[in-house]
Automatic annotation (TrEMBL):
GO terms for cellular component: cytosol. Its EC number is 4.1.1.23. This is Orotidine 5'-phosphate decarboxylase. The keyword Lyase applies. Residues 16-237 form the Orotidine 5'-phosphate decarboxylase domain. It catalyses: orotidine 5'-phosphate + H(+) = UMP + CO2. InterPro entries: Aldolase_TIM (IPR013785), OMPdecase (IPR014732), OMPdecase_AS (IPR018089), OMPdecase_bac (IPR047596), OMPdeCOase_dom (IPR001754), RibuloseP-bd_barrel (IPR011060). One of its GO terms (biological process) is 'de novo' UMP biosynthetic process. GO terms for molecular function: orotidine-5'-phosphate decarboxylase activity. Keywords: Decarboxylase, Lyase, Pyrimidine biosynthesis. Pathway: Pyrimidine metabolism; UMP biosynthesis via de novo pathway; UMP from orotate: step 2/2. Catalyzes the decarboxylation of orotidine 5'-monophosphate (OMP) to uridine 5'-monophosphate (UMP).
């Protein structure tokens, strides 16, 4: 069963989008968030906004009722990442990510660190960034295709106790088949249609394609933040999700 269905077992709430709040400061962010509600979407704070605002804004948005993805892509020695995950758990965040390339011991330490929190965050591993393609991997010394590397790293993440991965929706169908129904597949690189500007993304899909392929959540920044009516775009995607499941 898709995790979206688990969320919706009592009331059919379909809200697969995590809106990436890639803004420079708090006032711009809060101005934008006023157009949204926790019934429509989840939110993500990444490196730019967190560097500018710190935990204050994270806690403010959680207090407004939003599920929050703290996207700081940890990549460090096991103890450092484990301690950072504990702080995130204490802040009440819903999703925390780390690079799978930090290795098994880093991921196991993170999973152990949050295991005893009554409301622990889901830990997810970043596989191959959606901005990367085959040529980038070759330059880094990898001979696998992006899909092969994503599958290998997703298995390692699952084996190390993580709850899911960040990957492109292009890998979602094979991951869903291999990793089971409960494993979270969080997919950025989403564009409303294939003709839309891909910006710096390389491995992209539409919301409908991604959900059909087995994505649990769609991370969307510019297609929502630059829309004339962000709430209307989200409602449309939620309808699409409802029709699919
Ligand atoms: O971890 C992420 O969220 C992430 C991983 C990845 O592989 N690719 C990726 O684009 N992201 C994030 O997803 C968002 C995508 O933004 P848009 O391209 O504007 O939709 C950004 O906030 C990225 O930091």
């Amino acid at each position: 069963m898709n995790p979206l269905m688990i969320d919706s077992s009592i009331h059919p709430i379909f809200k697969p989008v995590i809106v990436a709040l890639d803004f420079a400061d708090e006032s711009e962010t809060l101005h934008f968030v006023r157009q949204l509600s926790p019934d429509l979407c989840q939110l993500k704070i990444g490196k730019e906004l967190f560097t500018a605002t710190g935990r204050n804004l994270v806690e403010k948005l959680i207090n407004q009722g939003f599920k929050l993805f703290l996207d700081l892509k940890y990549h460090d020695i096991p103890n450092t990442v484990a301690q950072a995950c504990k702080v995130a758990a204490e802040m009440g965040v819903w999703l925390v990510d780390m690079h799978v390339s930090g290795g098994r011991r880093m991921m196991e330490a993170a999973a152990n660190a949050v295991a005893n929190y009554s409301q622990r965050p889901n830990l997810i591993g970043v596989t191959v960034l959606t901005s990367m393609e085959q040529a980038d991997l070759i330059e880094l010394g990898f001979s696998q295709t992006p899909e092969e590397l994503v599958i290998c790293w997703a298995k390692l993440a699952q084996d190390s106790g993580l709850d899911g991965v960040v990957c492109s929706a292009q890998e979602a169908a094979s991951l869903r088949a291999k990793m089971g129904q409960e494993f979270l597949l969080v997919t950025p690189g989403i564009r409303l249609n294939v003709a839309e500007n891909a910006d710096d993304q390389r491995r992209i899909m539409t919301p409908q394609q991604a959900l059909k392929a087995g994505s649990s959540y769609l991370v969307m920044g510019r297609p929502i933040t630059q829309a004339k009516d962000p709430a209307a775009v989200l409602r449309q995607i939620n309808h699409t999700a409802y029709d699919l499941f």
